[in-house]
Design goal:
Layout lengths: L1 H11 L1 H22 L3 H15 L12 H22 L3 H36 L5 H7 L1 H30 L4 H24 L4 H8 L3 H14 L1 H22 L4 H23 L4 E4 L2 E3 L4 H4 L10
Antiparallel strand pairs: 1-2
Amino acid sequence: MMFKNSLKLLCANFDKVWKLLVYHILSIAVCFGLLCVFYDYIVSAGGVAFSDSGLDNAFQTGTLYGSNISSGLIAVADFVIIFFKEIFANVGIGIYFVIVTFVLLPILLNTGKFVMCEMMYGYMSSCQRQSFTGTYLKTLKSSLVYSLLKTFYSMPFNALIVLSMWSLTRIDNRIFDYIMPFAFVIVPSLFMAFKETFTAGWAPAKVVYNQNIFKSFMIGMRAVLRRGARVFSTAFIIYLLAIVLSMVLGLYAIIIILPVLSPLIHIFEMVMFFSSQGMRFYVDSDTILSPKKLEEVDKIEDAKYIL
């Protein structure tokens, strides 16, 4: 039901998808502009990595076709490794690249996520529509604190996801070449769902209860754990579908899938939180959903956590 309600809310609020997409493009443009200070160096490193990894011949098909997709994924992993070796030939530039790409950009994107959750709270609680810019400015202080802590908190999870994907490309076995596409879909989806389980309630709790960032994290975790298996399985399905569609339809499908995936995840988190807390919410302008009350889903020993 969480997945179904998330899709309904996504369709009812598709204008927010475009607003968030514009914000993401602007955020990427800001980071790209900062990286342009070393444009020639970065492009040169990318060119070396592109030719040495054989990435130009990697994507000959968009289908899940045994050794072709396996060689493509290996080429992508080799490209990333070679690229960072080239970048860190100059340590200063390498550190600058990492800070802009893996710290500043996620902070900007997480700020957009907080704004999206705030707008969805207005819609789900009272069918209210808010402007993106107005909400962004109103919540900037709270969203920056959340974004900064969320970025660093997520780093171990992101490292685990990247490590799992890299490890799959290091397996050298002809039979595994045909298993690789399925493993590459399932394993990262599991790890991303695992990460989502430990972060899904944070932003919604901060938006709904407006507590300090640490108390909001605890409230969010309690909300997630009330429906832990359902949250994990729904997140797994969302990521699984996104990866499968990207691989089946080819590289250009990512251009369509990513702008929709991000707001869908944010909406799913709000739906999960509202449902877990027993809060009524609008699914569309004509439908109000009434989940079970909090005292109906909590165990007796958890009653002290009722808010």
